[in-house]
């Protein structure tokens, strides 16, 4: 645990993180998140965060060294997509029992599980995750992974991010540290070129990176590694030979980008593929960084030509929606990079933003929102469920865009809702993704179900029947009569 503490301190003191830079030395030492109670984290622990970052590496076997529940909680709870291998979605766990803990069988069981996976699946690598229980009993997963790697001749990567270490975001960063320590730079590619880039923090949710990659292909830009979305182990291992990088979700993997720049001189920028302007800006920035690193400057003109062509196509498709959505009010309850990139995207077609959450946003994210919205009155750190409900039921927004956790608040307030977080069903990245996002907003707002559910229920609309109170004799028949009478009395005072 000592080396884990040192690593946590190191990722908390991230110089590329604005939030961290704004703190004094004492606050920096305290870190960004409170440690969680083992077993009480209900997802969102550091282990969960590490698994989120690494699991989309699709040809790797992900082995969770823990009792069964940790894997059960974290397996496949995001919509990342693979264009090939399916091994990443197979669930592997050492399934430790109380007896294993008491008898000190954890490390032995882990070694055996690695051997079984190697023999049954022959993956290029196995990632081994520590968890609360195995950290507390002191299993040395680093030593077991090293020994197994030597014996079986394959990469066995320890991911030391037990849930009790802290939050999901800390787990994201610890996963990046595992990649830096054990994976990136271990394979030398024989085809490195001046147009190679890395995309960091892109998870390929609902396959949305596939809407962007064809644009890069057309420019002759090769994605050496997209970490982690639809990644292959060897691509990640040779990612150190890319010439430039784009960081998509800055809070998750900023430490990876900064350290890759330090170690391998790979410059990076923060960008987004949500929205037309932001997609164009990202393509421009990629081309400019590549030119700075020695690519032929003619790529700049080709990039501008592609941007002009794609923007024209996208605006033409969006024109049909502009009329239907102009002036519609959106409440955005998400955070991070989406808090500004989606805001910008929606405002591009005349949608009004009545509020955006900045809970997980960096200082830079907040600054961007202020610039886009022209004031910060629409930004909120966190809104209690009760306040969200009040806002929606008073019809202060026509739709809420958020993650699944708050969907029932919108539905209870009889307000359209669209999932834009990790469980979303539709890809929203790139030019085509923006058209799809607007199409889904249009479908949700104009769905005829909303006018129906906002109607009073039929039983609230029955004409009042003036009955005499039934006599209070005992028996079932009298009870029914009383209930009926009570119903008609209520109708008299009802809205209809
Ligand atoms: S690692 Fe710890 S906090 Fe996370 S799911 Fe397992 S027991 Fe719960």
**Fourth-level CATH superfamily of the largest domain:** Nitrogenase molybdenum iron protein domain
Sheet with most strands: 5 strands, parallel
* Count of alpha/pi helices: 22
Number of domains: 4
Whole-number average pLDDT? 85
CATH topology of the largest domain: Rossmann fold
Shape descriptor reads globular
CATH architecture of the largest domain: 3-Layer(aba) Sandwich
Radius of gyration: 27 Å
What's the CATH C level of the largest domain? Alpha Beta
- Beta-strand share of residues: 5-15%
Q: List the ligand species.
A: iron/sulfur cluster
Number of strands: 13
Category from helices, strands and their pairing: alpha/beta
- Residue windows where pLDDT falls under 50 for at least 5 positions: 473-477, 488-496
The helical percent reads 40-55%
Distance between the termini: 67 Å
**Strand adjacency order, main sheet:** 11-10-9-12-13
Keywords: Nitrogen fixation
GO molecular function: nitrogenase activity
Protein name: Nitrogenase iron-molybdenum cofactor biosynthesis protein NifE
Pfam family, one: Oxidored_nitro
Write up what this structure looks like.
This protein folds into four domains: about 180 residues, 3-Layer(aba) Sandwich (Rossmann fold); about 110 residues, 3-Layer(aba) Sandwich (Rossmann fold), CATH 3.40.50.12380; about 100 residues, 3-Layer(aba) Sandwich (Rossmann fold); about 35 residues, no CATH class. It is an alpha/beta fold and about 500 residues long. The strands form three sheets. The chain has a five-stranded parallel β-sheet. The chain has 22 helices and 13 strands. About 50% of the residues lie in helices and about 10% in strands. The C terminus is likely disordered. It starts with a helix and ends with a helix. Helix 7 runs parallel beside helix 9. Iron/sulfur cluster binds next to helix 4 and helix 5. The site of iron/sulfur cluster (SF4) has 15 residues, from helix 4 and helix 5.
